[in-house]
Amino acid sequence: MRYCPNCGKKLPEGARYCTNCGYRLTTGSAPQSTGNSIRSQTSAPHVSRAAVVDSRQKHHRHLGWVLVIILLIAVAGFWFYNNNGNDDGTVAPASSSLVSQSSATDSTSSASSSIVDDSSSSADKLTTGIGPKNTAAAVTYYAAKSGVSHWSGVLNTADGITVQLSTDKDLLNALSEPGQGMVYRVYGYHDVDSTDDTDFVYTVDRDDTIHIYTLPNDFDRDQTYEPNATVSKQDMVSYLNDHNYAENVTELGNKVDIDR
């Protein structure tokens, strides 16, 4: 029998190592620590995975920098192309877009100018929406210029005209077209005396049809007088515009007094 010099365990003769502590009797070497062996075996794979992860991270960072550099080169090239054009002088797409926008702006400006011009020209034209003073001036101008009997004399005064509104029943009954029950008595001067006789009158229907009369100074109240002219307001306005009387009518309209 022999004993293990390391742990003192009793061993049979001829044993080469201690079955208790693993001491090698033939070489006299102490056994390796089992814990250290286990740690060595387990730590090796851990170090290997960390190395792999670190390697992958480095690879990803490398790819990221490559992509950033490529992107910067592409942006720089696009900027250079847009600002300088290519070698054959072709305008870059961005420049073409700017040219198109500029053309669109010019077209819009031209359209706006056209609208302004049309508005200015339409201001020289009469419309059916003119007020009572311009309507009286328009009737007077139409009657005088279209040849209604004696109406041209109304325009011979520089002081303007006076329109007297009348609902005189005798006068209305003497007219075949009394309109809406209102007679417009036109005088070629101002400061009209209500007792003065009238020569020039007109009435207006609900549909804006105008009836123009030239009456005797002392009209017969038992007689019915037919209009010397009948015209729609639209046709009257068209006639005055076509003969370039719009400005004259407007000027006369500023000199109209309405006597109620």
UniProtKB/TrEMBL annotation:
Keywords: Membrane, Transmembrane, Transmembrane helix. Residues 101-129 are annotated as: Disordered. It comes from Limosilactobacillus reuteri (Lactobacillus reuteri). This is Zinc-ribbon domain-containing protein. InterPro entries: Zinc_ribbon_dom. The chain crosses the membrane at residues 63-81. Residues 101-124 have a biased composition (Low complexity). The keyword Nucleus does not apply. Residues 3-25 form the Zinc-ribbon domain.
